[in-house]
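TOPIC: backbone geometry
CONTENTS: sequence, C-alpha cells:
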Amino acid sequence: MKPATRPPWWELAGFVAWALLVAVLTLTPERGWSPRQAAGCLLCGELGGADQVFYRGLAYGIISRSRALLAASVAAPALVIGLTGWLLEPVQTDGLYYAQWVPRRPYYARWNGRLLDAQVAGGRTPIGRLRDTDREREALVSGHPVELTFRRGSATSSLAAI
C-alpha cells in the first residue's frame, strides 16, 4: 500500500477559495430575489456556477485525492447548513406584537381564501396591535399552538402568501 502524500499547495488553496466563494455567494443577501427562482434547480440560475465548480472538482478527482480535503468537503456544507439553521432560528422580541396580513408581492400568487379566526393559547388575536403582548409572547415561547381557521380559496399555481 502506498503511503499517504500531502496534496500540492495549489489543491488546498483551490479548496479554500471554493469554500470562501460558496460562503460569499450563499450567505449574502441578493436584491430582487423571488421564490420562483428557487424552483429546485441545483446548477442553474445566478449561483449555479458555485456548485458546478465543486461537482467538477469531484468529477476530475481534484478533491478526492486527499482524505482530509474530502472530509472537509463533506463536513463544511454540513457545518454551514447547521450554522445557517441556528442563525435563522426565530427569536421573540421584547417589543409590541402585531397581527397583520402579508402585503401583496408581484412574485406571489394571489390567494383568495379568507382567514376567519386566529388564536394564540386560546385567546383571540385581532388584526393590528395585540392587546396583551406579554401573554402572547409567553404562550409562543412556551410552545402553545397558533390556531388559524380559514375558508378555503381556489388552488394557486405557485406559492401564495397569506
